[in-house]
Every structure is written in C-alpha cells, then in structure tokens.
Prior knowledge:
3 helices; 30% helix; five-stranded mixed sheet; alpha/beta; rod-shaped
Amino acid sequence: MGAQLQQSTDDDLAPVHDINVTPFIDVILVLLIIFMIAAPLATVDLPVDLPASTAKQQPRPDKPIFVSLKSDGTLAIGDTPISRAAIGPSLDQVAGGDRTKRIFVRADKVIPYGEVMKLMNDLRDTGYVKIALVALEKAGSP
C-alpha cells in the first residue's frame, strides 16, 4: 500500500477509510474472558478414575455358562432355576468342576446394582473369578 501525504491548506479533514479495530478487539477479549470463566463450570467433573480398555471382541465359547438374575430376584443357571445358597454346587455341576471357565452374568435392568454386585461376590466366593457381564448391543453400533 502506498501512502500519500497531502498538504492541505483548508480546515476540512478528509474522511478516513480505515476501520478502527480497537472496539472489536475489546469485545473479543471480553468474550474470551467470559468463556474462560464459564467453560470449566459447564463441564461435569467427578473424581472418577476410569480404566482404559483396548479389549477386542472375544469369540463366543461353544457352551457358555449363563447365570441370570431375573427381575423378581430369582437366579437361574442356563434355564434351570436355583437358590442363592446352591449357586456353588450348581456351577460345579454345569462347569464340570473347572473353575477357570468364564461365567456370563445376565441381570434384568430393573435389578439394583447392589444385587448384581452381591451375585458377583457370591460367584467369586465359590471360586469363579472369570466373570463377564452380558448386555445388548445398541442398534446401529458396528
């Protein structure tokens, strides 16, 4: 851009065609400060240490062992109803005494989380530590 210096003798000032950006910068800085203060308040910050998972989909075993917790609180291994006290011997019979087999736990969505944890503790107390939770895949997920 070239600048042109003119020597004017009259008192009329020529119109300036430059944009004054100072008010624009002031507004942008005020908005920046507002967003810097408001952004941390808008996020949910719970002190939860989430684990990272790189698990790939595992192949389904030939004969999976399902322990189901129904909506009325009753237990079943496969299709056979059982009592909570008989869970150890019943699993030993189905698994053939092999406590390294994976147990798939299915629980109705209306069952409280504490009841699912109690079932998992019962399974662990009987010696079955390989426990997997079963859920439905969402429609449209790969």
